[in-house]
Inverse folding.
């Protein structure tokens, strides 16, 4: 896969630290699954976590903690774990492995809901602040111009779009924060399907955007 | 503006011995080796969990669970791919995320050693040396960069929360993280 747009270092650090929301973690894991460049940087970010672990002032456990665990070592609870089997082959080429258990079917079989003509969504309903959803945009259509109060990450699964930042194709990720305002346009012959995770509501700027916001609820 | 947290007190002991100890444990399953690892890492894992917001009692329990996992997975530890503290950090973090979220998402595990021969055998001690140099570099970071790294990893704060806590814009939190990480990444460039 020829990936041109990658995760921000700040995002990888938050992922390594375990401080991203479930939806954003899912999106990051889905990109990393197919991006060797970001895999390497994640290893580096995790090594930062390991080094920091050594720096923490130790806090003693309750007395007897070691003995309790030692007593478990020879029981079933202490049995060595089997090495995990190699991951199952991907069922659908356009669904990254970490995303597959959330969808359980192909992109075309999902229960898409029309937001406005040409734009459909599938909400993953993960709860928590922000939202995690798939958006499906017909060729030539655009999402209204908008900015972000927090972070917005978009991972392209199928098709492509262009905006002020460039052209994004399958596997590419757009990792945006409150300083970026953009208007993506679906720009290939097929629907553009992307996974979008936000940690705060988007801010639509134009009149059209403000009118549709309550209905799209992005 | 909150006061800057004093971060790193003194040089930690060299970690190569812990990686060697963990690798040996995977082969021998020696209880004395295990007890040494437990004594060193369990109180650090507990400190980490308490900082993430767990009560001391829950942190005790989860630290024990993490260290029991160390015993159960030690044969999968490969010192060529990670050092002991990174491996244990990742284990504790994943347990903590599971506990807090009970989620379906499998945390992406990059060093996972699938049941297949590894064609790319690498030189062993490299990771441990790197860890020592990394700890030194983290201590050498400007306070402002070290602080955001620390808040992100050890208080589990999101970037927006860090921005609020220390009273700087979200963009500045991210640029400090990037700057700090850039410096640390140069280590990999130099060591390979």
């Amino acid at each position: 896969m020829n990936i041109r747009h990658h995760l921000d270092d700040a995002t990888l650090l938050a992922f390594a630290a375990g401080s991203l929301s479930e939806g954003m973690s899912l999106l990051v894991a889905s990109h990393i699954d197919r991006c060797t460049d970001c895999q390497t940087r994640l290893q580096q970010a995790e090594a930062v976590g390991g080094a920091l672990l050594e720096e923490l002032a130790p806090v003693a456990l309750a007395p007897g903690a070691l003995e309790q665990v030692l007593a478990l070592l020879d029981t079933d609870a202490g049995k060595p774990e089997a090495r995990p089997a190699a991951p199952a082959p991907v069922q659908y080429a356009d669904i990254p492995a970490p995303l597959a258990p959330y969808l359980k079917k192909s992109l075309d079989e999902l229960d898409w809901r029309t937001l406005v003509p040409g734009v459909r969504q599938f909400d993953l309903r993960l709860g928590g602040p922000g939202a995690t959803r798939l958006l499906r945009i017909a060729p030539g259509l655009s999402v209204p111009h908008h900015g972000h109060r927090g972070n917005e990450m978009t991972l392209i699964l199928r098709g492509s779009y262009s905006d002020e930042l460039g052209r994004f194709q399958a596997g590419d990720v757009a990792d945006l924060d409150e300083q970026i305002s953009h208007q993506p346009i679906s720009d290939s012959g097929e629907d553009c399907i992307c996974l979008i995770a936000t940690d705060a509501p988007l801010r639509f700027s134009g009149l059209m955007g403000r009118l549709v916001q309550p209905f799209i609820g992005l | 503006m909150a006061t800057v947290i004093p971060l790193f007190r003194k040089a930690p002991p060299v970690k190569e011995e812990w990686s060697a100890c963990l690798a040996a444990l995977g082969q021998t399953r020696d209880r004395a080796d295990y007890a040494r690892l437990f004594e060193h890492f369990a109180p650090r894992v507990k400190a980490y969990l308490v900082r993430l917001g767990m009560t001391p009692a829950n942190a005790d329990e989860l630290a024990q669970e993490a260290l029991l996992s160390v015993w159960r997975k030690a044969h999968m530890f490969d010192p060529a791919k990670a050092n002991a503290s990174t491996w244990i950090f990742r284990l504790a973090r994943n347990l903590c995320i599971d506990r807090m979220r009970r989620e379906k998402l499998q945390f992406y595990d990059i060093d996972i050693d699938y049941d297949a021969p590894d064609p790319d055998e690498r030189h062993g001690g490299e990771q441990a040396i790197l860890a020592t140099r990394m700890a030194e570099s983290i201590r050498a970071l400007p306070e402002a960069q070290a602080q955001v790294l620390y808040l992100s990893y050890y208080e589990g704060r999101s970037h927006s929360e860090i921005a609020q806590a220390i009273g700087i814009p979200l963009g500045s939190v991210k640029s400090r993280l990037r700057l700090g990480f850039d410096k640390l990444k140069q280590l990999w460039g130099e060591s390979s």
